[in-house]
User: Fold these one by one.
Assistant:
Number 1:
Amino acid sequence: MANAKLAYRRFRELTATDRWLALAADGARVQRMLWASTSTKNPLYGDVRYVEPLIGPETVNTLPDETIAAFADHGRVSVSVSDGLEDAELTVDDLGKAGIDFGRVTWQLENEGVQKFIEPFDKLMATIADRTRRAHRGALASGRAALAGAEATVNQNLAALQGVQFGRRIWARDASLWPVREESDAEAIHGRLGWLDSTGHFCGRLPELLEFAAAARAEQIRSVVLLGMGGSSLAAEVAQRTFGSQPGWPRLRVLDNTDPDSVRGIEQSLDLDATLFLVASKSGTTLETMSFYRYFHERIAERTDTPGRRFIAITDPSTPLAEEAAAGGFRACFENPPDIGGRYSALSYFGLVPMALAGFPVEEMLRRASMMQSLCGPFVPASHNPGVQLGTVLAVLAKRGHDKVTFVASGAFRSFGLWAEQLLAESTGKEGRGIVPIADEPPGSPSEYGSDRVFVWLGLEEEAAAASAALEPLEASHPVLQFTAPDRTALGGEFYRWEMAVATAGALLRINPFDQPDVEASKQQTREVLAAWAGEARGSDSNGAAGRGIGPGEEPFSVLWGGDGTGESLKRSADEVLDAIADLVGPGDYIAILPYFAETPRRDNALSALRNRLRARLGVATTVGYGPRYLHSTGQLHKGGPESGIFLLLTASPVPELEIPGQEVGFGRLILAQALGDLRTLSARGRRVARIHLGSDVDGGLERLTAGP
C-alpha cells in the first residue's frame, strides 16, 4: 500500500511538469495508474483493504467479482490515494532499517508480474498462430520432419530462443542476436534486415510494376535478359525454371557466366530488336554484370540511336549503375531499399521485376509471402514460427554433424536448391563454420551417403507420395525434411521461410549471416591477374607473370590436358587425377567441382556423371558451381567455412575471344582470371584445391574424367 501511494505521488508530479502540460495541450492523454490483483488474499484482512485506500483521479482498479460485490455492499468512496503519504514514507524507511531492500523486492515483483503476463500472452499467440496456419493450409507448404533423434535438442533450442524473445528482437532489428565485435558490425546488421517486412512495401509498388510489365508486353518484347550474379539473379532463375515461359509473355533468360560462348549463345538466341536487358547489381559496380552491360549496350547501339531504352537497371539508390541509368536514358531504374541484402532480395525488385516482365504470378507469390511473414511475426512463439523452427532444426543438425543440407532435386521445385544454396552458403560459411548446401546432386542409394547428410524435399501435393516413398529408406539413418506445397505460387512463401530460417540458424551458430568477409579476396586476386595481363598487352610486364599464372608451376596440383601455349601439357590419366583427389578426402568432407566454361546440357550430364563416380567411390557429398557464378553464392563458404571442402577447378581455353568494350581484356581472359584468382585465394587459405585445364576440348576432357577405370 505504501509503495502504491508513493508511486501515485510520483505520477502526479510527472503529469504536472511543463513538458507534460505542453504535450497535454496538444491532445496527449495520460496512461492511468493501474492497481491490479486487488482482491484480499489473507482472510484476516478486510475484503476491501486494497480498494478503499487507492481511489483517486486517473486510476484504474481491476477487481474480481467477489470484491466488486463486497465494495458495492459496504465500500466507502473518497479520494484516498493521496492520504497518509508520511506514513507511507516511514513504512519504506522502516523496511530499509530492517534490512529489506525495497528496490530489490519491487524489481523481483515486477519481473514476476511481467512473466505472468508473458506466459498467457505467448499461449494466446500460439493459439492464434495455429489457427492462422490452419487458415493458410491451402496456400502455404506444410512440413514434415524426421530428425534422427534430435527432437529433444531442437525443442530445447526453441525454448531458449523464446526465452530471449528472439522473434520480437529480430523484428526490432536487434543486432545483438548475432556476434557483434564492433559498433560498425551492429550498424551493418541493422542495415540488412529490411527483408523482414519488405512484402508490404512491394505489395504497395505492385500496381506500377504490373503496369510497367504490361506495357513491355504490349510493345511485343519477346525476350528479357537478366544480367546479374548471385542473389541478383538466382531467385528469378528459379522462378523461370519453376513456372516456365508464359504464353504471350517475354521469355526470361539469365546471363551469369562470363565464358565467351555463354555470351555468344545468349546473343544468338535473341531478336535484339525485341529484347529488354535487366542490369541488376546492388552495388552498381559488379564486374561481370557491368561487362555484360557494356557488351550488349554496344550491340544495341549499332541498331538504334536510343540504346538506353532497351535497358532497365535494378540497384540501390545513388550507385554508379543508377547514375548510368539516368545519364544513359534507361527505360527505367528500380531503386531497391538499401537495407535489403543481395541474398535476401528474392522478394524485392531484384526478383519481382524480372518475374513480372516474364508474366509470372508475382501478385499471388507476394500474397503467399505475406502469409508466411505473418506466421513468422514478432509475437509468434518460436515453437510455432515456421522460419524459426526450420532455422533451429538446421542449426541443431549442423552441430550434430549433419551439415550437408541436400536438396532432393525432383518435382516442380527441383531448382529451389539453386537459390537456397547461395542463401545458406554465403550466410553461414564463415569463421571456420557453416552449413554446406548440396543442390542438384543425382540420387543415389542410401549406402552411398555419409552420416553428415540432412535431406530436404520441396514439391507439390501430387508429388508427395512418390517423394515419401523415395525418402523413407533414408529416414532410417538420416534426418529428412519434407515440404509439400499446394501449388507453384507457394514459392513466395518458401523464399520468406528460408530467409527467416537462415537468419535464425546464424544466431544459434554464432555467425553473422549478413556479411561476406572472404569474398573480396578472390576479387582482388582477379584484379591482379587482369592487371598483369593488361600490362603484358601494353608491353609493360617483361616478366610474363600472367602467363606463368596459367601454368602448373605456382599451383598445388594442376593438370593441363589441353596445351594453349602458356604451359606444359601434363599427360595424366583421369584415374590418376581422381586418385590424387581421393588421397585428400577424409570423413565429413565434400568435393566442389567448379567448372569455368559455358554450361550446356551435355556438360551438365557429364558433371552429374562425375559426381556419381566420386560419391560412389569416396562416399562424400559433391557440389557443382559454374564459375564465376559460384563466387557470388558458395564462394564465401569455400574460403570462410569449415575446412571440409576439396575444390576441383576445371578451366578451358575459350576460342575465339570475345572483346569487352572499353576493357583491355575480353570475356575469355576475364573468366580465366577469375578462375586463377579463386585458385590462388583458396591455396593461400590452405584449402585442398586442384585444377584441370581442359584446353579447347572441354567435352573430350569431361568424358575422360567421367569414364570408368
Note: The radius of gyration is 31 Å.
Number 2:
Amino acid sequence: MRTNIPIKQGVARGAMMLLLVLVGISMAWAQSAINDIPKEVKASDATITQMGHATLTLRQSIVVDSVSGRVDTLRKVTNVEWHTEPGTAKRRMAEQRDGGSGFYDHDSDWWLDLHWYTYNYPSVDEDGNYLLLSSMACMPDNDCRYVNNVIIACHVTLTDNDQCPSMYNTAGSAASDVSILMNHASSGLVIHSAQSDMPYYNLVILPDYEGFGITRYKQEPYLYQELTARHVVDATRYGIALYQSDPQVNGIRHPFRDGWRSISLGYSQGGAVALGVQRFIEQNDLSEELHLAGSVCGGGPYDLMTTILYYVDRDNQGEVLSMPVVMPIVLKALCDFNPYMKNHHPEDYFVERFLETGILTWLSEKSKTTDEITETWKSQYESSSYFHSVLTAEGKAKLSNIMKPEVLAYLRALLADNPSYATTPVPLPTHRGLNEDLHFAMESNSLVRGWQPQHAMFLYHSYVDTVVPESNRTSASTAFGEWVIKLHASIGGLQSDHVPTGLEFLFGTEEFNAIRALSAMPYIQTLDDVRMAKNNYSQSSLDN
C-alpha cells in the first residue's frame, strides 16, 4: 500500500534521509583501509638509510611575561653540527668550565650530544595501497643508562621539502621546530638534567608527512587527520622496532626504562597531528603496545570549521589573513584527497588573480618556505599593480579578495546562523554542492567529534592567535571536558600571535612540565588519574 505523505513532511524526511546517507559516507571513510593496521611490525620491513651523531648548540634565556609577571626559561637551538665525533659537547663544556666563562650563566652557549638515524618504513595511502615513507629518529648519547620515553614528535606546516626531518641533516634550519624536538633525545647531562628528568633521554620519532622526504613528489594530505595519524603511528612502531633490534643500532642502543611511556607532541599542524595520533592509537587498540600516556598539543587546528569561520569573522571586520598561505594549502589538500571534494578544484574556490601569483605551483614544487612565499607576494605587490586587488604590501591578503564571492557568501551565512560555532557544532548541509561539499570535507577532518578520549591531553594556545584561533582549544575543551588540561596561553603576554607562541611552546617550560606530568601517568587512565595529574602539575603552569 502506498502511503501519502504531505509535501512539506516528505521533503523534510527526504532531507533527513540524505543527511543520514551523507553522514554514513563520512563514517564509512573513518572505517576505511587506513585503519587496517598490522598486528605486529617487523624491523626487517623498514630500512635505516643514514646514521650519525649531532651536536646542538643551545642558548637559554630567562624571560618575564609583561602582563602576568610569570617567569619562564626559553631554549633556542642556534646551530646543529652533523656527523660530529661523539663527545664534542662534553669537550666543549670542559673547555668552557676551564675558561671560567660561566657554565651556569644564561644567555651563554651550551651543547647537547645525541645520535640519530633516518629510515624508510611501509604504510598505506588513502586507498589502502602500499606506500613507503621516511622518518628520522633521535636517541641519547652514550652517557645514557636507559631511555625514558618515546616522544612522537609532529612537525609544523612545511612548504619546503628541505625542512622535513629526514632531510634536516643536509638542509634544515637550526631555527626549525625539528631541532628543539630533537633536544628531547639529548642526555641532558651538559645542562645538569638527571637521568630521571623525563623531557630528556628519550627516543624521539620525527616522521616526514606524506608529500615530504622520500615522497616529496606526491601531494601532502594536509589536515587529513586520520591518514597522517596512520603514517605517524606506523613511523613510531617501525622506529621502535629498528631501535630495539636493528644491528646497526647495537652500539648506541639502551634499554627502555620500566614504565616507559609514549607521548605525542607538536605545535600548529603538529599539534593537530599529535592529537590525531592519540585518537588513532586509542581507536586502534594500540595504547598498551605503545604505552600511551597522552598528548601535548600547541596551537593546533583541531576543528577546521572553527578556524575558517574565524577567518570569515575577521574578514567581516575588515581584517587581513595573518598567513594567507593557509587557505590554499587547506583547499588544495581537500581537493586532492577528500572524498567529498574529488570533483572540485582549487580554481572553483579562489579568484583567478590570486592563483596567478603562482601559489599552487609553489605548493606542488615544495621549494619555498612559508616566509619565502610571503616575501614573493611582497615583491609581486611592489612590482605590479595587477596584484594589488588580492595582496597587501606586507604580502598578506583579505579573505574576501581571494575567495570567490559565492563561496564567501556561503561561509558568511554559516557564521551568521552559528555565532556559537566554537562551542556548538555547525549543522551539516542537507544536500551536495560546491560549497556544501567543502562544508562536509572540513567537518570530516574534525578532531573534536566522533570519539571520546581515553588519555589526558595538554592543550596550549594563545588567546590572540590569528592564524589558528584559540576557539580550536575551546572546541576541544567543550567536547572532551576534564580529559583536557589547559596550559598558559602565552609567556609573551597578550601580544603573542601564532608564530611567537609556537616558539614559547616549543622552547619554554610548559611543554617540558607536561611531559613530566604524563610520564608519571598509567597508560590505562581514568578521569581520576587526569585530575590527579592536573593537581600535581605546577599550579602556576595552569590556565583555569
Note: Residues 48 and 119 are 4 Å apart (CA to CA).
Number 3:
Amino acid sequence: MNKYKFVPLLCLLVLDSKSIYAGDKNNFNLSLEKLSRISLDSPATLTSLSEKDIPSSITTISHQQIQETSARSLDELLEFHVPGYQRHAQAFNTYQVSNRGFVGNGQFLLLVNGKRMSEHSQHSSIMERDLTALGDIDEIKVIRGSAAAIYGHGALNMVISIKTMNSRTFEGTKMKFSAGVTEEFLNGELSFGYKWKADQGVYLFAGLTDYQGAKLENSPVFFGVSGTKFQGRAISATNTTGYAISNDYQNAGDKLAIKLHGQLDIGDFSVWARYTRGGKRFATRIDSYEQLNSSITQQYEVAYEQATINLDYKKFFNKHWMTDFSVGYDMTEGLRRQGSTFLNDSFDETYREDQILAKLLIRNEQFEHQSFAMGAEFSYERFGLEPFRVSDAPVRYASFFLRFSEIDQGKRIEPWSAITVSGLFEHQWKVTDSVSFLTNLRIDARDHIELMYSPRFGVTYDLGSNDTFNFIISRSNKIPDAPLIRKQTIQGGDEFTPTTNDTVELKWNRNWERNISTLFSIYGQQREFTDWNSTKLQETQIGIARQWGLEFELSYHGEKLDISLSHQFNKLIDLKLNDPDTISIVSSQPNGFGDDLNILHNNISKLNIRYQFTRQLSGLITYVRYWGSPGSAGFHDFTNDRFAGGNSNNPSVRAIDNIDPYAFSESADYLQASINWNILKNTKIGIHGNYLLGFIDDNYNKRGFSHNGYYRTHAPAFNFQLSHKF
C-alpha cells in the first residue's frame, strides 16, 4: 500500500499554501445562495472561473434544446449538437463514440450530477446513452478533450456531464408522450416537483419506452463491396445482405427501457437515487451470420441495468470557504449476447460490479488574485458478482471468454475487489488583468496499477471583451478493463502500466459583435495505442500514435434566429509500432495502406438553425455531415491484399470487382427538422422528422458498422410529442 502514502503529503502541501484567490470581485456582493450557483458546477474546473477562461472546449445543451430537438436518444442529441461527436455502429458490440481521434466507449466518461456512471468491467460508458426519456435532464455539458486532471483515468478525450432537474428547478406535474413512425417507438414520461420551503423539496421522474426500431426493409444492411468470398460465393456491393437481421435500434430483449429518478433537497443536503435499464440489438459482421444457425441470428444485443443512490452535502462557511462532500453506491449489471463464431451456438457474456465512491472537495476564494481547491476521492469496487436481473447465465467477460477456464480450471469465477485512492489539487493565479494561470494535478493509486499522474496547465490571455486565448497542456491515463487486470494478477504478472495521452491545445475565442462569436482550436496529441491482440485474446499496447486536429465553431444569437455551425478535422500523423510485424485493426497506415485511422471520419460538420416564428411557434433544422472515412478504405485494401492467397477461415473478399463509394469515401448526410407549437399556455406539441434525406436517396443515411465495408442506412422517420404541465 506504499503507493497511497502520497495522499497525506499532498494534503500537507496544499494546506501550507498561502495562495488564495476570490475570482471575480463582484462575487463578494453575492448572497451565499447566489454564490453557490456560480461556476462551482462547471465540470472542467474545481474553482470558479469565467467561462471564457476555462481551459477546455465545452458544449452546453439546455433543457429547452433537449425538449425541442428531434433526437430520440441521448446519443442522437449529442451527435446533433456536439462538435466532432461521432457515433459508430460496431461489428461485435453496440454503438461506440469517438471524438478527436479516439474511438470507443472506454475513451470518455459519463457523469450524472457529478458522479461517474461509467463502469470498469466491459462496456464502460454505455449507460443512459440509448434512452429516449430525456425529460429529467436540466442541462448537459460536454468537455471536448482531456479532463483527467479532474476525473482521473478514462477521461481521455471527452466527459459528458448530465445535470438533472430538482425541486429548485422544477415545480408542478408534467406528462409527456411521444411516438415514432417507421422507426417505431412509444415513450411516456412523468415529472413531479414540489417545494415546501425555499431550500426544501422533492423531485420525481419516471420514463418508460417501448422501442421496436426500424424494420430491415426500411433500414437495410449492404455488403459495401463486390467480389468473390473465399467460400466461393459472389456478393454485390449495392445489394442487401438478405439475412434476418434485427430492427435498427431495437431494444435489447424486447424489454421496456426504464429511467427512474428521485431527489430530496433539505438545505445543504441532497440525496438522489436513479435506476436505468436499457440496451440495444445490433447487426454484426455479415460473415458471422454465414457461420451461424439461422435460428440465432437475432441474438446480437447489449443490455444493462444500473441502480444508484448518492448523498451530497455542500456547505458555504462564508464568502470564501466552501466544502462539498458526496458519497454514493451503484450497482451495474451488463449483458452481451451474440451468436458465437467459435461455437455453433449463442453465448451470454454477463457481469455485475458494485461501487462505493466518496469524494471531498475544499475550495477557498479569498484573496483578489489567487484561489485554490483540494480534494480526495475513495473508490471501492467489487467485480465478478452474479447479476440479479439481466441474465441467468454464469459470469463471463469478453476478455475472459475461453481463457478463464484455463486459470480457474472451469470453476466459478470468484469475486474480487479493487481500491482507488485519489488526490486532487487546483490553483488559479491571475497574474495581471490579462494573464492568468491554472494548474491542476490529480494522482490516482489503484490496486495492481502503477501510480497515475494527470497534470494540466493552462494559460489564459484575455484581450478584453473581444478576444481570449487559451494554451493548455495535459496528460491523461487509461487502464484496462478490470477482468484483464484480474487475469494478469492471477497469473502472477507485474503491475499494469497505464497508457497515456499527452495533449497540447491552443484555443481562440472571439466575440465579433454582441450576438456573433467564434471559437477556433488547434490541438496535437501523442498517445500510447492499444489494440486487440488475436494471440493473447486481449487488448495490448502496440505503439505510439501522433495526430493533430482543428475545431471551428460559429454562433449567432438574434431576437428570433439562432444559428450554430461547427467543423472538426482530425488527422493521423503516424502510428509507430513496437513490433513492425504487428497488424492493427485501428489503422493500416504502418502496413503501407491508407494514411489514417480506420472507422474515423476525418471531417465532420454540424449546423443547427432555430427560428421563433411567433411566441407560440418555433422551428429547428439540424444537419450533420460525415465527410468520408479514408482510413477505412485503406484498411479494406490491406485486408484484401493480405488474404489474397485465400483463407477459408477469413471472411474477407478475395477479389474485389467494385467498392461501393458509400462504403468508405463518400459522405453521410443526416437532416432533421422539428416544429414545436405551444397550443395552450402549458400544452406543447412537437412534430419531428429524422434522417429526411433518405426520402431522396437511402445512401445519404448510411452508417458503417464494420471494418470490411458493410453499412446500414437509417430509415427516414417521424416522431410526435405531446406534453402538458399541470
Note: The chain has a mean pLDDT of 82.
Number 4:
Amino acid sequence: MSRTIRTLSVGIVCAGAIIGVVVDPAHAETISWRANESGIWNLAANWDTPTGFPPGANDDAKHLKMLNHIQVAGNRSCLSFEGTSGVVDRFLLIESNKTLQIGQGGLFKSTGAGMPVANFPVRMKNGVAPNKTTVDVQGPIDGIDFGPAPKQKGDHVKITCRSDLKNSSIALGDESTVWTAGTGFQDIASTNITLGDGAIINFDGRDVTGPGNHTVGWTIGDDGIVNIRYSGGGGDVSGVDMTIGTGAATASEDTRVNIRSVGFTSLPISDTWLLRGYADVAIDLHFWAAGENATIVLQDDAKMSIGGSALGGAWEVKDEAASLSVGGDFDAATLLVDGATVNGYRLGHKTGPVWDLTVQNGGKIITEDQGGLLGQLALSGTWFGHTDNSVLTYSGLGNSVHTSAVDIGGELVRGGWAADLEIGVDEQFLVATELVRVENGQTFTTPFDSENVTIVVEGTGPLKTVESIGPDYEGYNEREVLFADSPCVRRWEKLLVQSGTFAHAVDDICNTPISGHVDSLSCPAGPPPGGVPEAMYVIDLEVEGGATLMAGINVEPVADVNIYYTGAVTGEGNIVDGAGQPYVPIRLTPTLYGDFNGDGDGDEPDEPGSDTRRFNAAFCSCLEFDARYDPLVDWNCDGFIDDADRDQYNATWKDPAGLTTDPCNPGFCGT
C-alpha cells in the first residue's frame, strides 16, 4: 500500500524549539534517579533533587544506579542525560506523542560497561499521526540505543540529531524518521539504523562513516527516503552496509525509496548496498569511489542513477525491471547484468586492474555519447594506457550491448552453448578481440569465442569504421580454408549493416604479433612478426537495402580489409571496395589445423603439395633450403613455427607419417 511521506512532524519540532514542552524553573543541577521502582519523570520524589523539582532544561539528569525505567509521560527537557545500561529494566520510556529534548551543549550518552555493546536503551511508543513520539537532541549522542516500547513497533517516531551521532543504534517501525538539523552537527559514525516502511533518513551535509575499516548497517523499508546531501563540506559516506526496500511483491508501482544526494565523494571499504523492491536511488556527484570489497546489488524494480563517475566495487543488476545509469566513467571491478539494463557513458575505461563483465538472460548495456564525446565500452587497455585485458561473459538469450564505440580487446567467453549476444555500433569503430598478445617477451593466447555474437552497424551520419583483427592469409591460403581449432581466427556470428548506414571495414591498428598493416605505425614492417594484414571473419554477412559496406583493398591509404565468411551473404545493399567497385566477400571452408589443402585430412605422405611437406618446410629448423615463414602454418599466431604448432598438428592428426620430429630451433625462418 502506498504511503504519504511526511518530511517534518507537525506540531513537534519547529526551528529548533519544542512546542508544548513544560518549562521547569531555571536551575543548574546534577540530578540522579533514585526511585527503587519504575516511575514517571515529572515526579520530584523519584529524583535525588536538592531543589524539589525534577530535572529541567538546565539540569544534568543521570540514571546510573537504580534497576528500573523512567517514564516520560509529558513533554520534558534537560541539559544532558547520562544512563548506564546492563539490566533489562533500566531504560527511558517515552509515551506516545511526547517529546524529550536534550539541550544545547549537552550530551545524551551511556557509560555502561562494554561500550558500545552495552548501550543505554531508549524505548519509544508509537506516535499518532500527524504528531510523532520525539527525541530532540541538540548535543552529541553517544552510546544510545533507540527502539520501540515493549509490544510496540515504534511506528511514527522521530529522532532529531543536531550534533554527533555515534556508537548507537536506531531500530524503529513504519513512518519513523531520523532527522538532522542545525549547524553544530559534525559526524554520524558507527551507528546502525533500521527503519520500517514509509521512513525517512535525512542527513543534510553530514559525513556518515562506519567504525574504521568495519561497517554498520542501514536498513529502510518500502516507500521511504534516505537523503544525504553535500552541504558546507559534508556528505561523504563510507563503511555503511545499506539495504533499501523489502522486495515485497505487494509494493505498488508508485512506491519509491529515494537516496537523493549531492556530493558523495567516496564509498570506500566493505560497503554493501542492497536495493530491492521499488528502490529508486539518485546520486548526483562528480566522482564516487566504491571500495575494493564494496558490493552494490539492484534487484526487483530497483533503479539507481549516478550523475558522475563510479570506480570499483562488485555490481549486480538483476531482474528485467532493474536498471543502473552512470553519467561518467564506470570502472567497476565486476559488473553482472542479469536481464536488467545498464546505461552509461564509458564503461571499463580504467587505469587500474582488469574488470569482469557478465551479461545474461536478456541483459542490456547501453553507452551513449555525452558532450560530443563517444560513449564507449572497453575490455582492452589500448585506449587508456594499460595492457591488461578484461573478460566479457555472456550466457542465455537476448543479450545486447549498444555503444557508439567498442573495444573488445580482451576475452570474450560464451557461458553456454545456447548463448547469444548482439553488439550494436552506431558511431565510429569496433575493434575485435586480441586473440594473441605479447607481454614482457611472453606470448599469451587469450581464450575467445565470438560465435553467437552479432555485430550490428547502424545509424545515419558519419562513416562507421569496423575493425576486426585476425591475420589475413591471402597469398598463403590458396584453398581458402579456415582452421576452426586455431586461436588466431574466430568468426562473428553475423555482421549486419543496417539500412541507411555506410560502414567501412578497416585495418589501421596493429593488434597481434603477426598481423598489422603498413598504415599502422605501431606495427613493424617486413617479415614476421609484422607485415601480415588483417581481416574480418564472420559466419553470415547481411547488408540491408539502403546500406553500403566498403572493404577489400589492402593498399595505402585506404587500408580496407577482406571479409571472409563461412555461411551466407544476404541483403540488398551495396558492398564495394575503396575504388567504388563491387567487392565480393571470400567464402572459406571450415576445417582443422594442418589441413592446408582443404581435403579433409592432414596426414598425406611427404610429397610435393602435401600437408606434412608444407609443415616441414615451414618448421623453424628450416628443413628445406628455400623455407620461409608461413603464417597459415603458425597455429597460435606467435610469429614462430615451432614445437607448439607441431604438437597441435600431431594432436589433431594422430602423429601423421612424415611429420618432422626434429627439435625446434628458436626463431622464424625468414622470407
Note: The helical segments are 611-618, 643-653.
